[in-house]
Design brief:
The protein has 3 domains: 162 residues, Periplasmic binding protein-like II (D-Maltodextrin-Binding Protein, domain 2, 3-Layer(aba) Sandwich), CATH 3.40.190; 123 residues, Periplasmic binding protein-like II (D-Maltodextrin-Binding Protein, domain 2, 3-Layer(aba) Sandwich), CATH 3.40.190.10; 148 residues, 60s Ribosomal Protein L30, Chain: A (2-Layer Sandwich). The chain is 34% helix and 23% strand. With 455 residues, the chain is of the alpha/beta class. It has 15 helices and 18 strands.
């Protein structure tokens, strides 16, 4: 009888959920990093862009909301957002209870197979980068810690280092603050920092990024990790990755993904043919200029192109220094799949952004310089230089075919790594083509990027 009652109860819950879902036009599920503030802002403005000007926010449960827009004729459109962590996005897509998955980490191979996505690498048909974020390492505002290495972070968060005195700093026992296991922020930190180590059992774990940051800001011995918009009253420290100098979590280094803990923010949709028209329209809105302004206004890094003039890099090849001496660097890098010249999904979208940027008034007389790089382990040292040249040549051909003037193209092999080659993520960051413009922009439009200096 108990089993019968349980079965009837489950059927009732499923039926209620189905009925409720039928009243919803678009459902987003997944990352709390995206779902806490960015997704609601995107949804609100998306509804307004279609004439649903009066938007009501309804709290359904913890980390679950519904936005209902009403137009002048009284018609309504509803969007539901459930933000319980990146891992839940792919399960929700597979179960058919989400139209769009929000994730602050790339899809895993097992998840790709589970969703029936046949492409070996995710493409623009189902993977959409809507912005960038940096995982900031945060401490109390008065902490003497200014910079930290990946190895030190791993030792602290795994419990091997338990007192600030072990780092030569005043203070007492270290208190570790970490996101919960469902979080994409945790997944990214786990893969970029922890490797095979586990988070210490003494760590305080959080579903809410804001709560974590606020608690660290009140703990002189605390240290935690949060998305860039959630630093709040705590203070972020610079991070050192491999042989590079400590790099601050700033907009330009996150946009180029040179910052050690930079990451992409994704919307995932079902395999080609299964995406709903409203879901496709929402994705298009998120990557549009209006959507990118919302990405920026919520504290993340938009994919708009900006220019900067880095100072000379210590250890850079002489030809690289000569090539870029009077040039301005753009806030994007083209990145590639291992041992290949194939652009990843963000690179394909960035190519369109770059062409559009260079076709604006005042830009037509400027020329492009491309510097290609390979990671040190993907091919033999002899072939590394050739592969980096091939990558730069490939980007150059794509640009020339779109009417862009490319002045110089040069590969530099494994020179100037921006990350540690010991991890797959680090190697991915090193496989890149930097984009520079040879003609200076108008005075006053260039921001210094001091953290790139003297590496």
């Amino acid at each position: 009888m108990t089993l019968l009652r349980t079965g009837i109860g489950l059927l009732f819950i499923l039926a209620s959920a189905t009925a409720q879902a039928q009243d919803v036009d678009l459902r987003l599920s997944g990352s709390n990093t995206i779902g806490a503030a960015l997704a609601p802002q995107l949804a609100r403005d998306w509804l307004r862009s279609h004439g649903f000007d009066r938007v009501q926010r309804i709290e359904l449960a913890e980390l679950e909301i519904r936005l209902v827009g009403t137009n002048a004729q009284g018609g309504q459109r509803a969007v539901e957002i459930a933000a319980h962590g990146s891992g839940t996005s792919f399960r929700a897509l597979k179960a058919g209870i989400a139209d769009i998955g929000m994730s602050s980490r790339p899809i895993r191979e097992s998840e790709r197979v589970s969703l029936g996505i046949t492409e070996r690498y995710s493409s623009l048909s189902n993977e959409h980068v809507i912005g960038l974020d940096g995982i900031a390492i945060v401490v109390h505002p008065d902490s003497p810690l200014r910079a930290i290495t990946i190895a030190q972070l791993r030792a602290i968060f795994s419990g091997q280092i338990t007192n600030w005195a072990e780092l030569g700093l005043p203070g007492g026992s270290i208190q570790v603050y970490a996101r919960d296991d469902k979080s994409g922020t945790f997944d990214t930190f786990d893969s970029l920092v922890m490797a095979d180590a586990a988070i210490a059992t003494s760590a305080r774990r959080y579903e809410s990024t804001s709560d974590l940051s606020d608690d660290v800001s009140n703990d002189p011995n605390g240290i935690g990790f949060v998305g860039l918009p959630y630093v709040r009253s705590s203070r972020a420290v610079a991070v050192k990755n491999g042989a590079s100098r400590p790099t601050a979590a700033e907009e330009f280094t996150i946009a180029t993904e040179d910052y050690a803990l930079a990451r992409r923010l994704f919307l995932y949709t079902p395999k080609a043919g299964d995406i709903t028209p409203l879901a496709q329209d929402f994705v298009n809105f998120a990557v549009s200029e209006r959507g990118q302004r919302l990405v920026e206004s919520t504290g993340f890094v938009a994919q708009r192109i900006v220019e900067a003039r880095p100072t000379a890099l210590m250890g850079a090849p002489d030809e690289y220094l000569t090539m870029t001496d009077t040039a301005l660097r753009l806030s994007l890098n083209f990145r590639f799949h291992p041992s290949a010249t194939t652009l990843d999904s963000k690179g394909v979208a960035d190519l369109n952004r770059l062409v559009e940027y260079l076709q604006r008034p005042g830009q037509l007389q400027r020329s492009v310089l491309l510097a290609g790089f390979a990671d040190a382990s993907e091919v033999s040292p002899y072939l590394s230089l050739a592969l980096s040249n091939d990558r730069a040549d490939y980007v150059a051909r794509l640009l020339v075919n779109r009417g862009v003037r490319v002045e110089r193209v040069r590969g530099f092999g494994p020179a100037l790594p921006v990350a540690d080659n010991q991890s797959s993520n680090g190697r991915g960051k090193n496989r890149r083509v930097e984009v520079w413009l040879s003609t200076p922009a108008m005075p006053g439009g260039n921001a210094p990027v001091s953290q790139l200096a003297e590496r």
